[in-house]
Every structure is written in C-alpha cells, then in structure tokens.
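Milestone M4 deliverable, item 7.
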Amino acid sequence: VQLVESGGGLVQPGGSLTLSCAASGFTFDNYAMSWVRQAPGKGLEWVSVISWDGRMTYYGDSMKGRFIISRDNAKSTLYLQMSSLKSENRAVYYCAARYGAAVAAIHRYEYDYWGQGTQVTVSS
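Output delivered:
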C-alpha cells in the first residue's frame, strides 16, 4: 500500500498550489480520503475529507472557501487545490485513507493508510 503526495513547495502569500496524492495497493474507491497537516511545532490538524464517491466534502473552518478537495477514482488520485494561501498554512500535508464514512478524523490511528507528506511553505 502506498500513498504518495506531491505538489508541495514554496509559494508567496496569496498564491495557489495544488497537491496530489497517488494511491496504490488498495481499492481506492472503497475509502474516504482526507488531507491532514502538521505545522512546525504543532499537532496534527484535519484539513478536509471527501467521500469514496466524491459526493460529500467537508473542510476545516479556516479552509472553507479557499481549499477544494477532489478525487479521480479512475486514476486513484486525491487532490487538494489551495488558494489565497497564508503564512499560517505552512505545514507538511499528508493524505490519508479511511475505510467507510467521510469523517473529520484527526489521529493517525483513525486512518487505515497514511502518506509520507509533502511540505508547503508560504513565504515572500
């Protein structure tokens, strides 16, 4: 099983970035998929979740209106479009898979699979 994030990097405040997460080794469309992040020196923060079929999406309060989660089950890939980025969005972003319902899970043990993360830095 692998979840491989990509698309992170350095972006200026107000800029945009799209993260991708390529899944393999499991039946992708059986799982709700989430993005979870960890800022330097802080704990895990749940960002967003999408149901197995993409019909339901939920976001953390500070992400609403600026982030869009999506998935392509044919490609077994999860996405996170981020816009109007702020310095406080700097973090390592992880994708995670959880069998069943799309819920705002914050702990690693609540997920079945977890990626290695991709760094997002927002700085001028």
